[in-house]
Amino acid sequence: MLRVAELAHLELTPAEIELYRGQLDEILNYIGKLEKLDVSNVEPMAQVLFAGAPGEHPELRDDVVLPCDVADAVLAQAPDAAKPFFRVPKVIER
Amino acid sequence: MTATNPTWTVSTVRDALASRKISARELASDFYARIEKRNPELNAYLALSPERAYAKADRIDALISKGAKGDTLPPLAGVPIAIKDVISTQGTRTTCGSKILETYVPPYDATAIERLEKAGAVFLGKTNCDEFAMGSSNENSAYGAVRNPVSLDRVPGGSSGGSAAAVAAGLAVAALGTDTGGSIRQPGACCGVPGLMPTYGRVSRYGLIAFASSLDRIGPLTQNVTDAATIMSIIAGHDPNDSTSASAAVPNYASEIEQPIEGLRIGVPEDYFGEGLEPEVRRNVQAGISLLEKLGCKRIPIQMPHTDYAIATYYIVATAEASSNLARFDGVRYGLRVPGATLGEMYRKTRERGFGPEVKRRIMLGTYVLSAGYYDAYYLRAQKVRTLIARDFADAFQKVDAIIAPTAPTPAFRLGEKTADPLQMYLADIFTVTGSLAGVPGISIPCGKTKCGLPIGMQILAPHFGESRVMQLARAFEKAGGFTI
Asked: Each residue of B266-299: b (16+ CB within 10 Å) or e?
């Protein structure tokens, strides 16, 4: 639990840890039913429309530069910005 | 007709505007009056955008006064529409029902919004939803639950509960919702209005704040099937800003849905009518199927052998994608920031305070199933089972033109009835997640009511890009009185 919370960048309270431990156990136990299926010769579904609609592969657009003059509008939403940067606590330590 | 008639539709709005019985501004103002009166008890809207709405209405009125009508009047001219709060709207606060985006005002419109705007729609405001669209009851909103307008002690369904409630209560002519595991269809069923989930990739997701990218779809909730077709013809189509949007041509839905349904083969999955389905729902959906048979459809029993694995598969795939998508909410670029001594501490404190319990639960589950040592056992296996579920549909569509099923196992449940048990809440999605995983389109339409007056939903599913087919059946059903069966 603690390791997963750390990976997810969540600082859970002791009460939350207790609650989630029970609930996630129950959910994982339910999810475990997938083990009953033999999937040894099955391809994982990586693209939704790949198998279902031939010729409907997602198209990639041409690699051309498009104007994107939104820096001011984007920075205006930041909790702490110093144009042209987002400002965050010091990261170089440890 | 008065402006407060709750059954305003796209075509009645159009006729009233063209014949100058009402102006677009008066219509918008009437809708805002209704919202002001009714929203305090329903909590369907989180934000209103009167400035944008009236500016648009005035432009429509100017067009009409210059003589615009027929083809020169845009297809949704003056139609008041509500937007689920996970879809970006320039200048109007977009929270996703979360505290972490409480102050967020998008700098751009989603593609679906841009297209509706061009078509003349008037945006009334943003509708309440489960936080980041995660929920089946709308009780996971950080801004309070929505109440079902049909019965105020019941949930409106979720996650597009605010959109469904707004349409059902006549607080919008139509609304956009999003469907990841049933979030348009199930609230449509709970509130008694049609709700369409298009094929994956049919409508651009650009500007939709992502929950599970391989499952998320934008679609309409409307007063009738024709309005759904009109809105689909506007929002569907390829978008260079969404590489998963399909380039298939957009048909003329409005004319295709009027095609006769005689001779169509409708598949009824026996696995969907087993235990867990409430008797009244079973009875009405069976009556709905009989009506379609009377209208000339051929009923064919089909098997969907992997249905029992769908919920488990869905809650692995969706939470895995959510844990990844929601990593972007870290207090750096937008929304809430809780200060911390280090960057990591800032992330953790921001996310701890900004996210609600269900979102944290799903991030935890998603992080776990993707983590080293568990990826193959959970995520990869689920992706393989997803292939099997998609095959169930492909096999069925060899034999039938459409599949008919209940939308949800029960009608709208009571507020608070399932909040303590997340797994029980997830199991309520059993009939909707299969179509979500397979990427096929589906509609939920009203199919009568229970003895105590709660709406029941019937679902129609078709092969990829079969929106016309589901709406054609839905339209025939509606014309034959099926909605009030």
From this structure: bbbbebbbeeebeebbbebbbebbebbeebebee
Give the predicted TM-score (pTM) of the model.
0.96
Chain B residue closest in CA terms to A29: B312
H or E element at residue B196:
strand B195-197
Contact assessment for residue B468 and residue B441, using Cβ atoms and an 8 Å cutoff: no
Query: Of B256, B279, B295, which residue constitutes the final position of a domain?
Result: B256
B159 lies in the same domain as B221:
yes
Considering the domain architecture, whether residues B372 and B410 belong to the same structural domain is answered as no
Which residue, among B104, B83, B101, has the nearest Cα to B172 in the 3D structure? B83
To the nearest whole angstrom, how far is the Cα of A34 from the nearest Cα of chain B?
A: 7
Same domain membership, residue B417 and residue B339: no
Alpha-carbon distance of A39 to A34, in angstroms, equals 9
Considering the domain architecture, whether residues B371 and B407 belong to the same structural domain is answered as no
Residue B143 CB partners (closer than 8 Å, separation 6+): B43, B46, B95, B97, B128
Contacts of B348 in chain A (CB under 8 A): 9-11
Q: Is B364 among the domain residues?
A: yes
Query: Does residue B165 sit in the same domain as residue B144?
Result: yes
Assess whether B244 and B228 both reside in one domain. Answer: yes
CATH number of the domain residue B246 falls in: 3.90.1300.10
CA B271 to chain CA centroid, nearest Å: 25
The string of pLDDT tens digits covering residues B109-168 is 999 999 999 999 999 999 999 999 999 999 999 999 999 999 999 999 999 999 999 999
Considering only CA atoms, give the Rg of chain A: 23
Give the span between the Cα atoms of B282 and B287, in whole angstroms. Answer: 8
Size of interface A-B (CB pairs under 8 A): 183
Helix axes B279-294, B467-479, angle to 10 degrees: 90
**Angstroms from B347 CA to nearest CA on chain A:** 6
Q: How far apart are CA B403 and CA B302, in angstroms?
A: 9
Domain of B222, in residue numbers: 10-256
CB of A17 within 8 Å of any CB in chain B?
Answer: no
d(CA B460, nearest CA chain A) in Å: 18
Query: Tokens 């400002």 appear where?
Result: A87
Within-domain flag for B443: yes
- Please answer whether residues B315 and A27 qualify as being in contact, where contact means their C-beta atoms are separated by less than 8 angstroms: yes
Q: Which residues of A touch B209 (CB under 8 A)?
A: none
Number of structural domains (chain B) is 3
Beta carbons within 8 Å of B200's beta carbon, 6+ residues apart: A48, A49, B214, B215, B217, B244, B439, B464
* Sequence-separated (6 or more) residues with CB below 8 Å from residue A70: B107, B108
Classify B164 as helix, strand or coil. Answer: helix
Split chain B (485 residues) into runs of 10 and give each run's mean pLDDT.
66 96 98 98 98 98 93 96 98 98 96 98 98 97 98 97 98 98 98 98 98 97 98 96 90 97 97 91 98 98 96 98 98 96 95 97 97 94 98 98 98 95 91 98 98 98 98 98 96
Question: What is the enclosing helix (H) or strand (E) of B74?
Answer: none
- Token look-up 């042209």 returns A84
